[in-house]
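Final report, closing paragraph on structural work. Over the funding period we assembled a curated collection of sequence-structure pairs, and we close with a single example.
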Amino acid sequence: MAGQGMQRREILRYIGIASVASAFPGFHQWAFACDHHPASAASPPAEAGPYKPLFFSPDQYRMIEHLAEMIIPEDDTPGAKQAGVAEFIDFMVANRVAVSASRDFRSTQEAIEAGNEAQEKFISGLGWMNARSHSQFGHDFMACTAEQQNFLLEELAYKAKFKPTTESGRDFFRMMRDYTVVGYYTTKIGLESIGYPGLKTVWPKLPSCPHPDDPEHKHLPKPAN
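Its predicted structure, as stored:
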């Protein structure tokens, strides 16, 4: 359901987003994330605890994670869930960072306004999905069967299945798809899945972490709104 091929220009823009996101906690899967535990380390790193959403409620976050996996499912390569796409979406939405695969922002103010709009659209969009699920099947989206969930998403993803009553849902799905695709293709997993050589030629070795005295990133300054 991702519905779009990766162009070099898009990938370069996504890498730019990743280089910013990787400076903050929890982005260990990103292409430019800090590497505190090189392969030669004497002991393996301690397992991180479960991710705690910054913006979404736990139930909303689980729904975001599930929708992302439906858009880019696991097949012969890891899917959106394994790549940590839901963390990317939560972080970007929490910090009002608008992500679009097709839109360029001409000013900082325009980008901030788009970030505020994205927060509202995500909340209203998740609510719309649950309302649509109730009207069709009598359950919230996450309580529906896999077949029912696919039916609901397909009528938002494929033009042949569009209905006049699903316009709001289609708008949400397009945004969700943009965030998912950008998030996936800025992770190491996503870049490796398309064999993109850019990191090998432009950035052959990831930079060392600039926070050696704070390996768990517990004391980094909060990102500016």
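The two ends are 31 Å apart (CA to CA). The longest helix spans residues 108-137. We thank the funder for supporting this effort.
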